[in-house]
Design a protein that fits this description.
The chain is mainly beta. Helices cover 8% and strands 44% of the residues. The protein has one helix spanning 16-30; strands at 4-6, 11-13, 38-40, 44-49, 60-69, 75-83, 88-93, 97-100, 103-112, 116-125, 134-135, 138-143, 146-151, 155-156. A five-stranded antiparallel β-sheet has the order 3-4-5-10-7, with no helix packed on it. The chain has a five-stranded antiparallel β-sheet with strand order 8-9-6-12-13, with no helix packed on it.
C-alpha cells in the first residue's frame, strides 16, 4: 500500500486508487495548458504567442493574445491581465493596455458570444537578462465571470557573443589623422 501526502493541505491518502483520482482531479483544475495550445475554462478561450527566436537584452519584442467568448451568455466585458517578470519592462500594448509597475491590464471591450479580440503587449528585455535565461509570461483572460489562465510560449535570452553589435562609424575624419581601429 502506498501512502501519499498532499502538501499544503495536510491530507494523507492511504489508498493508491483514491490518491490517483484526487491527484488527477486537482491537477486538471489547476494546471496551466501547454504553451501554443489554448486555455478553455468553459466560457472564455485564451490563445497566446511569442517570438520563436531568441531575444536580445535591450530590445523590444511582442507577445500576442486572442480572447474568444464562449459559454451561455450573449455578451460581456472582456479583460486580459498579466504581471511581467522582472526581466521585461512594459513598452506599449494594443487594445487599451495600461501598466502599473509590472502589472498590465488590457480592456478589450464587450464581446458577443463567439466573438474574439486580438491584442498584444510589447516589452523590452532587461539589459541585465542573462544569456540562456528562459523568460516566461502568464496571462489571464476574463469574460463575464469566466476566466482562463495560460502561459505564453517561453523565450530564451540569446548569447550576445553570437550577435554582432555595430558601433556607429565616425562621421568625418581629418586628412592625416590616425584611425583608432
Amino acid at each position: 500500500m502506498m501512502i501519499r501526502t498532499w502538501k499544503g493541505h495536510g491530507l494523507v491518502l492511504a489508498a493508491p486508487l483514491l490518491a490517483t483520482v484526487l491527484a488527477a482531479t486537482v491537477f486538471t483544475a489547476t494546471v496551466l495548458t501547454a504553451p501554443g495550445a489554448h486555455a478553455d475554462e468553459g466560457g472564455v478561450v485564451l490563445r497566446t504567442a511569442a517570438s520563436k527566436k531568441d531575444v536580445l537584452p535591450g530590445r523590444t519584442y511582442e507577445w500576442t493574445f486572442t480572447v474568444t467568448a464562449k459559454g451561455p451568455a450573449k455578451s460581456g466585458k472582456a479583460v486580459f491581465r498579466t504581471t511581467l517578470p522582472r526581466s521585461l519592462a512594459f513598452v506599449s500594448g494594443e487594445k487599451h493596455c495600461k501598466s502599473k509597475g509590472r502589472k498590465v491590464v488590457c480592456r478589450l471591450g464587450t464581446l458577443k458570444k463567439g466573438g474574439s479580440s486580438k491584442g498584444s503587449i510589447r516589452a523590452k528585455v532587461s539589459r541585465r537578462a542573462a544569456a540562456g535565461q528562459k523568460i516566461t509570461v502568464r496571462g489571464t483572460a476574463t469574460w463575464r465571470k469566466a476566466s482562463a489562465t495560460r502561459r505564453f510560449p517561453a523565450v530564451r535570452v540569446a548569447n550576445a557573443a553570437g550577435h554582432v553589435v555595430a558601433e556607429p562609424a565616425l562621421a568625418t575624419s581629418r586628412a592625416g589623422a590616425r584611425h583608432p581601429h
